[in-house]
Amino acid sequence: MSDASPDDLGDLLEQPEPGFRQVMSCVFGIHEHETRTYLLLLDQPGSTVEELANQLERDRSNVNRSLSTLLDRGLVERERRLLDSGGYVYQYTGVELPEAKEMLHGALDEWTEHVHGVIETFDGDA
């Protein structure tokens, strides 16, 4: 699991039926606003930072930081589009939901395997 804190995991485990957003945030170690950005990109693929900032009612610099985190986690893809007037703009698309679910399963499996290893090496000394 990526950067999930024990508090995040504890909160998730205490929920009888955690929501998808909560699971995404915990497993990928991302904040709620980053999860919202990802979900918006599923609905509006090819969005620019400016379009996302308007839709999310957030500052462009904050949206840029969210997109950087999502890119690092492999949840978003970025494509450069040339503008007719010169220059370029980046367009962002969320990784398709089935792939994101696979990533969630993989991260949880990896974490579980790690924790099992920690348990096995425990010898009673704190």
UniProtKB/TrEMBL annotation:
Ranges where the Transcription regulator TrmB N-terminal domain occurs: 25-81
InterPro entries: Tscrpt_reg_TrmB_N (IPR002831), WH-like_DNA-bd_sf (IPR036388), WH_DNA-bd_sf (IPR036390)
A Pfam family annotated for this UniProt entry: TrmB
Gene3D superfamilies the record matches: Winged helix-like DNA-binding domain superfamily/Winged helix DNA-binding domain
Name recorded for this polypeptide: Predicted transcriptional regulator
